[in-house]
Amino acid sequence: MLKKLFAGIGQSWQVAGLSLLLLILVDRGLAALLPDPGGWTPMDPAAVAPDRTRAAAVADDDWIGDYWREHRAAKDTAWRSWVYWRRGPHAGEIINVDAHGFRVTPPAAHDPRGEIWVFGGSLVWGTGNRDQGTLPAQIEQILAERAPELGLRVLNFGESGYVSRQSLAAFDSALRCAGPRPALAVFIDGANDVYAALQAGRAGLPQNEANRVLEFDSGRDALAALRSLARRFDGIARLAATPQTEPEEAAISVLAEAVASDYLATVRHARAIAAQYGIPTVHVWQPTVMDRADPRADEAAIVGSSARRHVLLQRAARAAAARAGAGDPALVDAGGVYDATNEPVFFDFVHVSERGQRLLAEHLATVILGQFGGELTPAGAPPPACTERPVAGGIP
Predict the structure, then answer these.
(1) Pair (20, 108) in one structural domain
(2) Is residue 395 domain-resident?
(3) H-helix or E-strand containing 331?
């Protein structure tokens, strides 16, 4: 009897395993053959975006292949309260992430006496850039060249995928640590706010929030668990879905205004918190390839292959934020920062080469020194160990 029972169990597992394998193969096949029902029609159906390792912006970077191999090894994240996630520690040749989960900025300032904190998403973190080529690292290099007497370290609080409210949460958490305050806080956001709104159809949420709702609910009842599992089968979902039409530009305009409004509310909250500590702030609307007046080389293909609704929403949200923030010198629209150069700088819609980071760093260093050069108060001694701030001294 036991032999027959175990044989039956074995056969059942085999059937279940083969059924699951067949389901996965069918799902992947449907995903490849069926159009996305979400209405993500590209701007130019004939356009093909370049591979990130061969885009014109990074074609001369002989280390770029090594970078992406190391990037894959450094991509694991762990849950972090309030901000949702941060990377785990990583020690490498190109990418170093410290024990607290922050990208390391190689020291450039001699006799550092103060800090600038920089917040944002993957552009700030430095996707596609070596440690010394990230935006915070290059801002520190430029400040060390132009104003060495300030002795300013620039710390990288950025993380891939963060929207502006996650940057705000990271700032708030860092200020709760014992230790000196920064001389200045710089926030570079906007592009991820737009993309999250594109996903959700509404402003003010982190990216992929619908998945978290399903995952949370799936622990409470079997039906929600099945719905959560079903979302993993994109191809089958496409077969059952009703295709959506592209939204009218009026609808995009309404969503863009909501994105800008939510972003500017976050700016006000960040400033209110910073004011309690006597910290000046700069808020930068992040540039994307969709904002370039005249995309160079294969940047035009990146724009053309992007979803039409994404391109229109990005441009409309930037315009709305610029209108609402007009006349505010500490609210910087960096959307056109690359228009003066004839070089390609983007290797995808939002990430730039180290040369692109240098141009943005030069622009921001000019803003920082022009507005706050005489007011950047030294921060004092390094803080004690606190996981909400980078490790003192930039130790990986």
Answers:
(1) no
(2) no
(3) strand 331-333
Domain, as residue range, for 356: 56-372
Which of 19-28, 321-330, 356-365 comes out lowest in average pLDDT?
A: 19-28
Give CA–CA dist 147/34, Å, rounded. Answer: 57
Q: List, in sequence order, the alpha helices (H) in 95-201.
A: 122-125, 135-146, 164-175, 191-200
Name which of 395, 320, 382 is nearest 177 in CA terms: 382
Number of domains in the chain: 2
Do the domain assignments include residue 81?
yes
Cα–Cα distance, 20 to 372 (Å, whole number): 60
Average pLDDT of span 1-24: 65
The span from the CA of 49 to the CA of 55, in Å, is 9
Rounded Cα–Cα distance for residues 263 and 271 (Å): 13
Average pLDDT for residues 126-145, to the nearest whole number?
97
* pLDDT at residue 337 greater than cutoff 80: yes
Average pLDDT over residues 364-383: 76
CATH classification of the domain holding 187: 3.40.50.1110
**Do 124 and 172 reside in the same domain of the chain?**
yes
